[in-house]
UniProtKB/TrEMBL annotation:
This is Haloacetate dehalogenase. Residues 26-156 form the AB hydrolase-1 domain. Pfam families: Abhydrolase_1. One of its GO terms (molecular function) is catalytic activity. It comes from the Bacteria. It comes from Kribbella amoyensis. GO terms for cellular component: membrane.
Length: 289
């Protein structure tokens, strides 16, 4: 995987961030989702480098081998604002003043928060399989609660989700069925497996969700109330074999009040587009970036 890429750990704002990068030209940072690491982009990142981009793939805070800070009552260290600051710090360290941000799943929340908090740094934004946190919560209905039940399960702390997951993480995360080596690719699967077997990583990933239901929602509400919008061109992508369209109908319409300029379309795939249909994803990224 990632032939020609540099892999290192950077100290950013007092946090350790594992990052893989290569290439020259316009910068693009790729942000993974749950429960993946940066290696989810193994079939995408090299193609973007070959096309003339400088590509940066970090592990999000708490995920993979990046740092896992102690949490607090508001789960602030795992807020998307804190993760967005990590992204900017990584790009500073690598010498990129302006960059595009592509985020999938939980990474999409970090991506749009980066664009909202650092509009002078983000040139273009791609959000995949996600809508703003507050939109998901305010539109929540019985179907969402039934299909996305893990949001509420992860939020519990009196009987913490970590105890259940860590009892058998490979079964919980379908490591030998839908998330098998054949589905993820052997190297990507090995990195994923190492992450989910680490109780500290499981705890940090759950903290990401706890922050989502609290501080991230409050930050979204504050931005909306203050009229802040994403200033850069935005592309919304979603997996047609997942449930985003079923939950929200016109996904682009959900994003429109948040963006100065937004377009979007579905891609034939199940949830992890970068692994399941990298060819069509790359066509969309090339056209937009």
């Amino acid at each position: 995987m990632f032939e020609g890429f540099t892999l290192e750990e950077l100290e950013v704002g007092g946090q350790r961030v594992r990052v893989r990068y290569a290439g020259s030209g316009p910068a693009v940072v790729l942000l993974h989702g749950h429960p993946r690491t940066h290696t989810t982009w193994y079939a995408v990142a090299p193609d973007l480098v070959a096309a003339g981009f400088a590509v940066v793939c970090p592990d999000l805070r708490g995920y993979g081998r990046s740092g896992k800070p102690a949490t607090d009552a508001d789960h602030t260290p795992y807020s998307k604002r804190a993760m967005a600051a990590d992204v900017v710090g990584v790009m500073d360290a690598l010498g990129h003043d302006r960059f595009a941000v592509v985020g999938h799943d939980r990474g999409s929340y970090v991506a749009y928060r980066t664009a909202l908090d650092h509009p002078d740094r983000v040139s273009k934004l791609v959000v995949m399989d996600g809508v703003p946190v507050v939109e998901a919560l305010e539109r929540c209905d019985a179907r969402f609660a039934a299909e996305w039940w893990h949001w509420w399960f992860f939020a519990q702390q009196d009987k913490p989700a970590e105890r259940v997951i860590c009892a058998d993480p490979e079964t919980w995360y379908n490591a030998w069925t839908t998330n098998s080596p054949a589905a993820l690719g052997p190297g990507n699967h090995a990195d994923f497996l190492a992450a989910i077997r680490d109780p500290a990583t499981v705890h940090a990933m759950v903290e990401d969700y706890r922050a989502g239901l609290g501080i991230d929602r409050r930050n979204d509400v504050a931005d909306r109330d203050n009229g802040r919008r994403i200033e850069c061109p935005t592309l919304a992508l979603w997996s047609t074999d997942d449930d985003l369209e079923q939950l929200y109908g016109d996904v682009v319409a959900v994003w429109r009040p948040w963006c100065r300029e937004v377009q979007g379309h579905g891609i034939k795939s199940t949830h992890h587009i970068a692994e399941r249909n990298p060819a069509d994803l790359l066509r969309s990224l090339h056209a937009f970036l």
